[in-house]
Amino acid sequence: MVTLLTTKQVAAYIGVNEKMVYSLVAEKGLPASKITGKWLFPRHLVDQWIEASTINYPDSPVKRLPETGMLIIVGSNDPLLDQTISWFNRQFPDHIAVFGNTGSMGGLRALRQERCHMAGSHLMEENGSEYNFSHAGREMGQMPAVVNFCRREQGLLVAKNNPRQIRSVADLQQTEIRMVNRGPETGTRLLFDRMLEQAGIDTQSLAGYENEVSRHIDVGIEILAGKADAGPGIRAVAGMLGLDFISVRWERYDMLISKNHFFDRPVQDFLAVFHDPGFQRMAAGWQGYDVNLSGKMIFPGQ
Q1: Where are the beta strands (DSSP E) in the chain?
Q2: Model pTM?
Q3: 131 exposed, middle or buried (CB, 10 Å; 0-12, 13-18, 19+)?
Q4: Which residues share a beta bridge with 165?
Q5: What angle do CA 46, 50, 52 make, to 5 degrees?
Q6: Per-residue model confidence as pLDDT tens digits over 139-187
C-alpha cells in the first residue's frame, strides 16, 4: 500500500517548513498530488526525489568476481585467441578459461562492471598510432593493466583472385560490390568506418553495409559463399579460407586487466602462456600475426 504524507508530514520528513514545501513542488519537482483540494505526497516518490537530487553520489560498491578457478575473457574476437584459450584449458586443467564475444567496446564495459577478468581490445586512438588507453580511461576511469596479446594485420577480405579488382577502400563505391560488415562495437568496424570517412564514402551508398556478422571468420565465410564481395577483417582469415587480402595496417591487440584481478592465479597463468614456446609455434602457424610483444606490459607513449 502506498503511504501518503500530508504537507505538514512531508515538511517534517524532509526537514523544512510547510511554506517551503509548496516552493519545492513548483520549482524543484517534489512529487505531489492534489486531491479534494489538499496536497498529498507519496512517500516512496519523495524518497526517489531525494535520491535523484543528491550530488556527489558515491559509486555503488562492485562485487568482486569469486575466485573459482574460472578465467572470464570478454571482448574482441580473434582466431589466435580462441586457439590460445583451448591450449590453456588443456595445459591448466585446474582452471577453465571462457570467452564472451562482445567486441572491444563491450569488453571494456564488462571489465568496468566486474563481469570479466580481462578484456581483449584493439581500439585505435585518434592519433592513429596508439591503442586502447584513452578508450579505457573514458570507460573505466581507473586505467587497467595493459598486456599485449599480439599485433595483427587488418584490411579487406575479398574473393580469391580478387575478381572485382578492389585495391582500396575507395573502390567499394562501385555499385556492383556487395559488402559484409562487423558489429558496431567491434574495433574492426570502428577502423572500417574511419577509413570510409577518410575516403569520403557515405555508408548508405554501400550495398550490404548493414549486413553485420559477429566474428572475423564469418566475414570470410560470407565472401567464400559468394554472398558478399568484400568485408573488413584480418589476414589470418584470408589465409585460413584461401581468400585474397588487401592490407590496410598492422594493429595492436591488447589484454586489459582489472587491477583487482591482475595477480589472480588464473590470470597470471594465462599471461604466462604468451611466453611459452608452444604459443609461439601456434602463432607461427597463422598468417598476419606478430607476437614479438606478446606478454609485455604496455604503457602510453611506449
Answers
A1: 4-5, 33-35, 38-42, 70-75, 96-101, 118-121, 145-158, 181-182, 212-213, 230-234, 244-257, 289-290
A2: 0.77
A3: buried
A4: none
A5: 115
A6: 877 789 999 999 999 999 999 999 999 999 999 998 899 999 999 989 9
